[in-house]
Amino acid sequence: MAATSPFTLKWGIMATGWIAEMFTKDLLTNPAARDVHDVGHEVVAAASSSAKQRAADFLSMVKAPTSAKAYGSYHELVADPDIDIIYVATPHSHHFQNAMLALDAGKNVLCEKSLTVTAAQTRKLIETARVKKVFFMEAVWTRYFPLSIKVRELVQSGAIGNVYRTIADLSFNRDTADGKVDFDDSHRMVNIDLAGGALLDLGIYSLTWVFQTLYHVQPEKDKESPKVVAAMNKYHTGADETTSIIVQFPEHKSMGIALTSLRVSTDVDGHNTGGPAIRIQGSGGEIHVMGPAYRPLQFKVIKKDGGGKVEVVDCPIPKDEERDWGHGMFWEADECARCLRDGKVESETLPWSESMVIMETMDEALRQGGITYPELIMSDVFDAQSPLNTGKR
Ligand SMILES: NC(=O)c1ccc[n+]([C@@H]2O[C@H](COP(=O)([O-])OP(=O)(O)OC[C@H]3O[C@@H](n4cnc5c(N)ncnc54)[C@H](OP(=O)(O)O)[C@@H]3O)[C@@H](O)[C@H]2O)c1
């Protein structure tokens, strides 16, 4: 019997920044290098909001095939009939308007984290995807790592008993001697106009570990929205610089602690000697995930009655030797391809309802922390001609 050819997903890349480069290079790797044979990817086009030449330079930098088209506007990208799915890789301030632009044009969308600035914006995107009957997913790549899948399976199998608590941290020490952090005030990490702050950029990964080990694993009929208690220290730009969130599931007697900071580091010396980034604590033992929380490569299983034995599991990211590349974002791209091949509009690994609950948690944390963003980026009214869509800065 002849082998069936893999389903190929045709991508349009919206924006030409750092993560767009990482993701597009991963799309261009050979799936066989990660032992994937049922799906593949094609980069059809990339668009820059500033200039067509910037998109052309991006495509040549990532060594895209010469057939890939360069566009000088996001509007042109979403109108391209050859594209199946748009990857939104703009700052999170722009996600709502940019993802709406693509959904409104009938395109499937994979949108970077944090999905939006507010939960109301996420709700609007989900409603639009539902009405348009198109696929929509938040690009939390870590969820699709074989490591995350194994950890979720261990939690669900009861390998460490009932899981009652997860402590997760993603922090980077960017402290400078003058009391600031080493990002220019205009940088998207601290710029309030670009929805800057530790929570929306880094804390989302701490929350991802809390939610995938305490909420995702709850049976569907017993899904419990959390109670949220948060504290935030503010940077002088108005963005949060250190944030701690307690996420409580009283019915399940479980609790998550999500930490993030721009002042101290999870990995104190750059050699992972500071201990695990994530501790998943059960009645019968613990799972320790070694950081960084967004791209973990190892976890440890420690049983309460294990007599001091530690099981160490390494999960390296496979590299395409020909391209000398492999970042780990291809697994989420493979998930998009499989969902679209199978006619699904959302992924079971990160369903719309779960993105919604996480955004509500961040909304509540920002409210308690007293952080507000400008109206332009908090609005949930779609405007195709918004400066966030046209690039007029
Ligand atoms: N999954 C991950 O591991 C990961 C890692 C880093 C970042 N991210 C997420 O990806 C998004 C982008 O982050 P990044 O590090 O790639 O940022 P970046 O390097 O600053 O790139 C952002 C791109 O967005 C476009 N853009 C449109 N309007 C802009 C504006 N007013 N200011 C700045 N850029 C604008 C620009 O491309 P054009 O001019 O070509 O349109 C720019 O190159 C963020 O939401 C971030 O949270 C995810």
Automatic annotation (TrEMBL):
<dbReference type="InterPro" id="IPR036291">
    <property type="entry name" value="NAD(P)-bd_dom_sf"/>
</dbReference>
<dbReference type="GO" id="GO:0047837">
    <property type="term" value="F:D-xylose 1-dehydrogenase (NADP+) activity"/>
</dbReference>
<dbReference type="InterPro" id="IPR055170">
    <property type="entry name" value="GFO_IDH_MocA-like_dom"/>
</dbReference>
<keyword id="KW-0560">Oxidoreductase</keyword>
<protein>
    <recommendedName>
        <fullName>D-xylose 1-dehydrogenase (NADP(+), D-xylono-1,5-lactone-forming)</fullName>
        <ecNumber>1.1.1.179</ecNumber>
    </recommendedName>
</protein>
<dbReference type="Pfam" id="PF01408">
    <property type="entry name" value="GFO_IDH_MocA"/>
</dbReference>
<feature type="domain" description="Gfo/Idh/MocA-like oxidoreductase N-terminal">
    <location>
        <begin position="10"/>
        <end position="137"/>
    </location>
</feature>
<dbReference type="GO" id="GO:0000166">
    <property type="term" value="F:nucleotide binding"/>
</dbReference>
<dbReference type="Pfam" id="PF22725">
    <property type="entry name" value="GFO_IDH_MocA_C3"/>
</dbReference>
<comment type="similarity">
    <text>Belongs to the Gfo/Idh/MocA family.</text>
</comment>
<dbReference type="InterPro" id="IPR000683">
    <property type="entry name" value="Gfo/Idh/MocA-like_OxRdtase_N"/>
</dbReference>
<dbReference type="InterPro" id="IPR050984">
    <property type="entry name" value="Gfo/Idh/MocA_domain"/>
</dbReference>
<feature type="domain" description="GFO/IDH/MocA-like oxidoreductase">
    <location>
        <begin position="150"/>
        <end position="287"/>
    </location>
</feature>
